[in-house]
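Input (Acyl-coenzyme A oxidase):
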Amino acid sequence: MATAAVNPDLARVRAQATFDPLQLTYFLYDGPEKTKRKRFLQNMATKEHKEQNFRRFAELSREEQYEEALRKTTYTHRRIAELGLKDQTDIFIFREVISPSEPNPFGLHEVMFVTTIEKQGTKEQREKWLPLAKRFGVIGTYAQTELGHGTFLRGLETTATYDPKTKEFVVNSPTVSAAKYWPGGLGKTANCCVVMAKLITNGQNYGMQSFLVQIRDFETHQPLPGVSVGDIGQKFGYGAMDNGFLILNNVRIPRENMLMRYAQVLEDGTFVSPKNDRLVYGSMTLIRSQIVGGCARSLAKAVTIATRYSAVRRQSEINTGQGEVQVLDFQTQQHRLFTQIASSYALTIAGRVSTTSYIKVNAQIESGNLDDMPILHALSAALKAFSSWEMMSGIEQCRLACGGHGYSLASGLPKIYVNEVPACTYEGENVVLCLQTARFLVKCYNAAEKGQQLPSMVSFLRTAKGGKSRLTEKLELDQIIAAYEHRAARQLEEANTRLQNYLNKGTKPADAWNSSSQSLVEAAVAFTHAFVVKAFIEKVTTSRLEPSLSAVLIQLCQLYALHGISSNAGQFLRGGYLSDEQLTLVENKTYELLAALRPNSVALVDAFDFPDLVLDSDLGRYDGNVYEALMEYARRSKLNQTEVHEGFYKYQKPFVESLKAQVAAQSRL
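Output:
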């Protein structure tokens, strides 16, 4: 990966691996051929990145980041077309090198605007709009969130009132809080958007529907009459993305601009409702499924940086007089990092399962079978929430593990954090999503109590509530799964009991739900955690792997699951399911696994196969030449362009001289 001499400490840890990391790379990327293809595209993109002299975001202002992002995005799209790349994985790999962990101003156009038209548009609408959108004759975004409302769709205020005389919808933002706020690409890039608005026809409100609204002139890019649009300003991160606001003042659009594949408004204003209201939100389910894999990859980048740096960094002594040791030798550092390595692998597997589930259920939906749609919605919502929370806390642990240098933008960690953590709130706020999943789980729980058939994903609700754990000192994987399913079933039972107790007291259903909501969220998290653990273990134990690789991955499975038990010990101990002695076994095995995984730590992150450009980190370099890179970064600081900053002459020197003058004046008194 690199031509410079590799740091000897980093090289030594690499050489200690007990398995071939290339075989693990094949496991992650579906075999040698796909790995070869991935590396070919990454090497090509790396060469072009250098030739184009693309600038590093760590050294740019917010305005420069947006402009550079546009330059990168338009270049990438031209190259994708020239190279004839069609496969979405190929496209992602090429883009990731050019724009690593960086927002793409065209991103919402591709993942939401185009997708929504594909999923929600009629045949005629797709034929009209998709060719335009795919050649960027129209550049769109998805405008749902408002200044005053987000995940609560029924609270959105934007209206689309049908006028049967002109066969038009009048789209309006009736209040300040009705302004669309936060959509990516809306501020300066998009000229059109899918607007989610309350449909009003024949005097009745029919709820949220999707409307195509042009907001800027296709030639001049100036806002159209009745449209007030712009960027929302500086944010915690995401500097390259022009998240925007949109205020519509009675803007008229043709009737044909309502996406009508499912819900329809006839020319006379008659509303034809869809077979299932959730069909309107299919695009959101897709992007939530994709977010899981993205969160896994972001955490993998962070832990790659922190693990490599921990092999290079020497700090303090363990045994007095024997010299400073690699930070990786400290058990506390191992616990901090190895659990995140395990988590990144677990979430990677869960992301694959989520995407596979979406593809399967979406095919059923396309053929008119909606039976599994509630399952898909519940799973995608919960996994999106769980994975983004895991990523958020994991990246921060990686930053902290790098000490002071982790705080530098040169580490790459702040960029990953601020540009990836928005996943906790975009496309559905996590707590709200967990409550949506909890509603599905409560229905399943009550169905199980009545002896009704359950989806396979929650079939454990029939058997997992009672009894004691059979976990022994061998810490059998099937018993670990059983423990997680028991925890999920028990948490759900307790949440449902709390809910029913309120209802039995005569509490209004909405109030009863609110008073039970924290326990319901915890039940949804427990369900999702069990799903991830089971998916991880089943994937590893059913795959045909070399024995040395299988052994290490089983250790990762154990570490991920046992760490989860220790971190949530109270829930596993409830009702005496796990004993104190079993919990001690879990904790002791966790510490044993840290020591066992130490020789394989660098190989495990190397297997993610990230080129240096994708990590964009001076701490996570493949060659480990950390200190040289940090000094070069420091020397390039704009503050170092002059030996003496102009602020010295404008403020510092006059201030010091004024104090001198005061002292001199006082001495003369």
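The domain at 108-275 is CATH 2.40.110.10 (Butyryl-CoA Dehydrogenase, subunit A; domain 2).
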